[in-house]
Design goal:
By secondary structure, this protein is mainly alpha-helical. Helix content is 55%, strand content 3%. It has helices spanning 27-35, 48-57, 59-64, 69-89, 94-113, 115-124, 133-148, 153-164, 175-178, 186-192, 195-203, 211-219, 240-254, 266-275, 282-292, and strands spanning 6-9, 15-19. The structure holds fe (ii) ion (2 copies).
Length: 309
């Protein structure tokens, strides 16, 4: 039972209602459709969010019924991107945070499944079109890097939750500031640099938000040579999760088209990151490069419009 209408497409391209919202669609209905050569049903564009929420709620059983890794990855990616939209609109809503937790576990299961599953998940990053996908990209890249680093499932779970929420402080900044094209004033730049602190302030006193989540939010713009923000920490004072998040956040920003810059490819991004010696933790960056070697197609990106750092 879905809470949106399902349509059939006629030969002339018009649509006809097949089942209204909140009516049952059974296995028998499905077989009848297939017998009649119908392989696709359609939803109205306005119901897209309801459809993705439906996917998220039924994620486990839907994924169980799928064999193709790319299909699974696309569904996880869509559900996660929609979730981030909801989180940015209401970051402290406990239900949203529970959804974050369960989506991280689903993503983690896919990343840990095997090389094919991991590569499919990394390839899903290319289907990138919405404002909230940066958080999802960073999470997938970070989980893949954490796996490469040999982190335990529990560590990966905590790292992933932090990564999905790493930019949540931006929900407290105005869209005009975040999307302002051209040069920022010093005050505007300082305001944006507050987002790690704003994010921690938001979630610090919320139940079930663990320490490592806050560490990732606070430290993802710190740099090992002390040139980062908000605290200008040196390598020794940056948590390993902070080092991981700095690398995947910078990589996704470089390989993403935004209002400030065109996207560069994987190799150019890595070259740039290697050229700023000791800005990123060298050992962690080396493992990241090894991980990316898994999939030559990773990061053949589609353009997108938003700012993401
Ligand atoms: Fe950030
Ligand atoms: Fe970011």
């Amino acid at each position: 039972v879905a809470d949106f209408d399902l349509f059939l497409k006629n030969r002339d391209g018009s649509y006809v209602l097949y089942r209204g919202a909140n009516t049952t669609l059974t296995e028998a209905h499905k077989l009848t459709l297939l017998d009649n050569g119908v392989e696709l049903l359609f939803i109205s564009r306005e119901d897209r969010n309801k459809y993705i929420r439906y996917l998220e709620i039924h994620l486990e059983s839907i994924l169980d019924g799928l064999i193709v890794h790319a299909e699974k990855s696309t569904i996880i990616y869509q559900a996660a991107s929609q979730l981030m939209y909801d989180v940015f609109n209401d970051p402290t809503e406990p239900e949203n945070l529970e959804r974050v937790d369960s989506l991280v576990l689903t993503t983690l299961a896919q990343v840990m499944g095997g090389e094919d599953e991991l590569v499919a998940m990394l390839d899903a990053l290319a289907y990138d079109y919405s404002t909230y996908t940066h958080s999802v990209n960073v999470t997938i890249l970070g989980l893949a890097l954490g796996k490469q680093l040999g982190y335990s499932p529990d560590e990966l779970h905590r790292l992933g939750t932090g990564l999905l929420l790493h930019d949540v402080g931006k929900s407290q900044l105005s869209q005009d500031l975040l999307f302002k094209p051209g040069k920022l004033t010093d005050e505007e730049r300082d305001a944006i640099k507050q987002h790690p602190i704003l994010g921690c302030d938001l979630l610090r006193n919320v139940d079930n938000v663990n320490y490592e989540t806050l560490v990732v939010i606070m430290q993802h713009h710190e740099r090992c040579d002390g040139s980062g923000y908000p605290h200008g920490l040196n390598s020794d004072d940056i948590h390993p999760f902070g080092k991981v998040s700095a690398i995947v956040d910078a990589f996704d920003t470089l390989t993403t088209k935004c209002v400030f810059q065109d996207a560069v490819d994987t190799y150019a991004a890595i070259r740039t990151m290697l050229s700023v010696t000791n800005t990123f933790c060298p050992e962690t960056l080396r493992e990241f490069i090894l991980m990316l070697n898994l999939s030559e197609n990773v990061r053949k990106r589609q353009p997108r419009e938003d700012r993401s750092a």
